Prior knowledge:
The structure holds three protein chains of three kinds. Chain A has helices at 2-26, 33-58, 66-80, 85-108, 114-132, 142-149, 157-176, 178-188, 190-195, 200-226, 237-247, 259-278, 285-312, and strands at residues 151-152, 155-156. By secondary structure, chain A is mostly helical. Chain A is globular, with a radius of gyration of 19 Å. In chain A, 55% of the residues are buried. Mean pLDDT of chain A is 90; it is low at 307-313. The longest helix of chain B has 16 residues, at 175-190. In chain B, a hairpin with a 2-residue loop joins strand 11 (211-216) and strand 12 (219-225). Helix content of chain B is 34%, strand content 26%. Chain C has a two-stranded antiparallel sheet with strand order 1-2. Chains in contact: A-B, A-C, B-C. At the A-C interface, helix 5, helix 11 and helix 13 of A face helix 5, helix 11 and helix 13 of C.
Amino acid sequence: MKTRKIVGEWYIYILMIVIWVIASLITPYFRQMSVFMTIIVFSVPLALVALGQNLVILTGRFDLSVGGILALSTVIASVIMKNNLFIGILFPLLSGTVLGFINGICVSRFRIDSFIMTFGMMAISQGVGLLIRNYPGGYIPTGYVNFLLKKTGPILLTPLFILIIVLLVGEFVLKRTNFGRAVYAVGNDDVIAYRSGINVTLIRTAVFTISGFTAAIAGLFLCAIISCGDATVGALYPLDSITAVVMGGTILAGGRGDYKGTIGAVLILTSLGRIFNMAGVNIWYTYVAKGLLLLIIVAIRMFGVREEKEVAE
Amino acid sequence: MSEILKIEGISKFFPGVQALNKVNTSFSKGEISAIVGENGAGKSTLVFILMGALKPDEGKCFIKGNEVNIIGVHKAKEYGIGAVFQEPNLIKYMSVAENIFLGEQGKFKHRGILSYSKLFKAAEEILNDLKIEIDIRQLAGFLSPAQRKLIELAKMMRHNPKIIILDEITAALDYEGVAKVFEIIRNKRDEGKTVIFISHRLREVFDIADTALVLKEGKVVQKLELKDTTEEGLVNLMMGKKLSKVFPKRISVGRKEKKVIFSIRNLTTKGKLKNINLDIAKGEIVALAGLRGHGQSELLKAVFGLVPKNSGKIFINNKEVIVNNPVKAKMEKIAFISNRREDELCFTHSIRRNIALPSLGKRQRAGFIIQSKEKKEVSDISSKMNIKAPSLATEVGNLSGGNKQKVVFSKWLLTQPDLLLCDDPAGGLDTGAKSEVYHILRRLANEGKSILLVLSDMVEILNLPDRVVVISEGKIVKEFSNIGSEDSKMLEKKILKASAGVT
Amino acid sequence: MTSIGLKRRNINKDVLQAIILFSMLVVIILVAGILKPGFFTIKHLLTVMHDTSILGISAIGQTIVILTGGIDLSVGATMLLADAVGAMLLGGENRIIPILICLGLGLLIGAINGAGVAFLRIPPFIMTLGMMTILTGSIFIFAKTRGFASPILRYLSVEKVGNIPILIIIWIFLTIIMAVIMSLTVFGRAVYAIGSNPIASYLSGIKNKRVIFLVYAISGMFAAIAGLFLLGYTGVPELTYRGGGLGSEYTLASIAAVIIGGTVFVGARGGLERTIFGVLVLKVLFSILTMVGIGESGKLIAQGLIVIVIVGIYMRLEKL
């Protein structure tokens, strides 16, 4: 029983290690530190986006607009940063937070379905991004890039550091703060949460605002990697982040799950591309693998849910 | 006794309805007051206003003589009003302790970090205080209905409210659970709290309450001391109808020539049921009684194919049938009416679509619905059932509870069932609608249908069925065949004894 | 609850939604007519509808999936797969087998979606998201050689009968067939019942799983049909990878059209006739934006805004 519980909670990391071991057996290149570092670097933006997404999904909603917000953030940064680094960081964050807040208000106060609201916001934010910058370009200061992606020996300290901090913050907020517990309560049953004195509207608004904010941070990190602003760079993020959150064990209906699983899934998703690349397989197989992995994991979990349901009734 | 809560001239309008019309009343310290009335009399509206979940259109509230404005559940909490709502109010996937302090876990901190050990300790204290023995680390989803209500009581007590509002707290409970809840309520009254108690079960109102506030059509009919009146008298006040008329007369003719059409043999399920044997005759109403959650509902579900059977056989007219899903059940002319009306109806669809749903297959040609036939059958059955609605295109969600239940009956009757399984068919309805449901059931029985009910209200058990079967711990422990002829007080005692497992 | 309240509610929702949708379309067309005088000619309106037909066909399947309370994110990817595979196998010749293979492929993809949702109980969003990802990869792995549409396919997609493009007739014809099925058959009733309350329909003896399975299979088939006509319309397969976001712009547009049409996510009202209007509103709006010289960015913003605003309006109506 106890081992089953542990496996249930950490299965994604077990899977990750299995995948990594297989990969390093197949291709010796995979054992290099630099490959690991690439995975870490590309995991950071997805992990950040997935943090916000995780909060939103825990309340039983979606955020499809994270990709647009992230892309908009890179675009704004690429326009402003050359003049003033501080404002160049502040404005993308501000835009993400405001758009997230609008999502939140519309979903919580005006009760627009979150799928539709963020679906609309996804189009709007991407449209605004394209309006500002039709083609990838702009200038990201070298100092800024160096700060984020500087190598200390073979190790890139900043991304590793950011990833660990994000993981700890995410877990701490969810498990050990009133806000985190309220997020779970709202996701399980918002009527009960309301009657227990939780301000449901506030919590819902907050999670969407945070999701916009983390997407904007992700954009700031991503523009250092790609060294430009690109209004279409976010296209895969909404679905990848939802994939990561769901693979990591969070229930789409809300109320159950955590962030550490999501991080494990993020690492797996970003590894897949690298592994296929190293093994010399057509890169499009990554997509097939991603899709299959998601479906298999969810399908297996659905069997578990069925058992649980019988027990609970 | 001193007055603590007073309301003056409270009114509330809903589109097309005046739910409350200038209600004046007061509640005293150390008193249990019941609010009674039919559904639609304004009970829930009044309760929701006191809980801060609804804003009155006019009128004032006074607590200890000071005018207060209760808007929002938080505000009610500040004024020392605590409430247990009718619907379940616990989060299944959180521990009991976290549920008790839901929304306030942040109060329990150790060096700024949420401390679960402190939280558990505080929760334990509350439970000890109420003399409730439940493991606080357990997930709330694993609790029994009775345990859940106790935890909800405990959750309300976390703020130590002066005024306690209990809305239909006993609705999902059996006799035992009710007793435990009542014990807690009495203790709280003796501590000097004010308790406002709402229940449809008049027997309970007389058991627990000191006074009763009778509402009718949004107005106060009377506030009276319960020791000065009888059940009959209270019903008369509520609806101006005599209790004896609420239940239909049993016709004993049919029962002489008993023709068993439906039998269960040695039925055992994965869940609670063990070795059930039961016969039901044509035109007979059989009620399953006993403590809630001991397998009565499960028996209905097993017969309808919703619960997997481990062993056992079901015979209809001496022919064995295998029913393992609702589709097969329908084919064998079995109908099932769940106690959750929201599971029976598509609220966003019209009456016609809802009634036609289970019997669609009977009126089709190559997959296409024969519209004229459907229209005729639906309108015939709805006028027979006396469904009150502007038209058959009305959305079911807009109907009253009684009419919704009539739609449910109609839709199943169109499948022309021989056996009707009903789980608490009159639950949550007002007395008028209840009476209509009882009459429908009796009429169907007289037409030759066999009916198997799950009932939990003792008044119903004593007055509605032809035969009562008591189930305890998944087994049939006793049968009472001559319900009509026995003295009801004696019978009630016997049924209670059997339910508790004393034979 | 009095009868007064009841009557008012009944008239409002459905009729008002339809009126708003229709008047919106009229206003948009009027605006277009003012901006460009030639817009009002029958010929031009037909051209706009011609452009809309492929989206319209793909939205048929999406509509019935959304009616059951689900969603199909793989519509766009299925379309592109049929597009690519069709071109590869046809190679510019009139052959029936490749067409059947494409339709079968669509049906199969839909059936797998349906099996995942109905029998494995994977949430529709996840199931079709996974399928979309798999298909996106597969298209680029397997569709190596490019081909051409067959002449007949090309004829059906491009040519006109009199003044009316054949594709419009096909679109309207398919919509009518599906609308008839939805409103007059036992299957249609079951779809609506599941969308409104799956437990109630299960307890009423409806075979929920079978119906849900069929709904996704049908959606897959309509996506494949749309994909084939897309091939016919453009002549060569559309093998460009555009960011790959939500399946592709076709998925997005099909969902947007259904939402604008007013088929609500929960509650199972609305239907195919509404989706026609939704598709038209979206496309006419796009053609106006193109006309006044607003590019891709403006279209995205407009699509986002209109979806949010119209849902806001519908929700006000629900509360009346």
